[in-house]
Amino acid sequence: MLTILLNPNRSEPLYQQICAAIREEIASGALQPNEKLPSRRTLSAHLQISIVTVQTAYEQLAAEGYLYSRSRAGYYVDPDAPLLAHMPKERVLSEVQLVQAVPEDQIVFSTSGVDLEQFPFSTWAKLSRQVLSTKQETLLQSPPAMGLYELRAAIAAHLRAFRDIHAAPEQILVGAGTEYLLGILVQLLGASRRYAVEEPGYFKGKRILRSNGASVIDILMDKNGLDIAALRRSGATVAHVTPSHQFPTGIIMPVRRRAELLEWVNAGNTRFLIEDDYDSELRFQGKPLPSLYSMDTGDRVIYMNTFARTLAPSLRIGYVVLPPALAEQFQRDFSFYSSSVPSFEQYTLVHFLQDGYFERHLNRMKKTYRQRQKMLTAMLQAHPLGQYLSIQGEEAGLHLLLEVHLPCTEQELVAAANQAHVTVYGLSAYYETPQNPSAFPQIVLGYACLSPEELQQGTERLLNSWMQFLS
Question: Which of 29, 218, 296, 411 has the most crowded CB, counting CB atoms within 10 A?
Answer without folding.
Answer: 296
